[in-house]
Design a protein that fits this description.
Length: about 180
């Protein structure tokens, strides 16, 4: 029986490293050796935006919702590369479903709340987003992450998914967890 581990979305503004990246790291690595025929499905973005912002990976300075979502995509692309390097028998699908009309729960100021309202009005349904990713759950070979953007396979950006950045992010994450 195949096991699919789904690691959440960036509902709302996705403030903080814990919500947009660290939860996915802990879930995927924590369950990796416990599942039968697993596939990790990460709704963290397909990572098309270049290398991580190493000067501020947690977005503590100059936070903006859009840049935080982009940073989450970049970190999750590096997570995918690092994960399959450590768990080569597991398939990993990194998905960007586009804007999906979910609850968008969060503590938002007026400007962000207005932006979220516009996104909710134009976003795809959850059913559409799920339907677009289903064909990819059995695709790809273990040890090679699959990146999907709005229902189409895309190559991972080499800057956002370099093995060196994946190792650096893994080490950084271990430091954060050790604190």
């Amino acid at each position: 029986m195949k096991t699919v581990v789904i690691t959440g979305g960036t509902d709302g503004t996705g403030r903080g490293l814990a919500r947009t990246y660290l939860s996915r790291f802990l879930l995927s690595h924590g369950l990796a050796n416990l599942l039968a025929d697993p596939v990790v499905l990460n709704f963290g973005g397909a990572g098309r935006f270049g290398p991580p912002r190493w000067d501020d990976p947690q977005q503590r300075t100059q936070y903006h919702g859009l840049t935080a979502m982009i940073q989450a995509e970049i970190l999750n692309a590096a997570l995918a590369v690092g994960f399959v390097g450590r768990h080569p028998a597991i398939r990993y699908v990194n998905n960007f479903p586009g804007i999906v009309a979910t609850s968008f729960a969060g503590d938002d100021d007026k400007a962000e709340a207005a932006q979220i309202g516009r996104l909710r009005a134009t976003g795809n349904s959850v059913e559409t987003a799920v339907g677009e990713i289903l064909p990819f759950l059995d695709s790809g070979a273990p040890g090679h992450p699959v990146a999907v953007s709005e229902g189409g396979a895309i190559p991972l950006n080499s800057q956002a998914s370099s093995p060196a950045d994946a190792r650096r992010l893994y080490d950084y994450t271990r430091e954060v967890l050790a604190r």
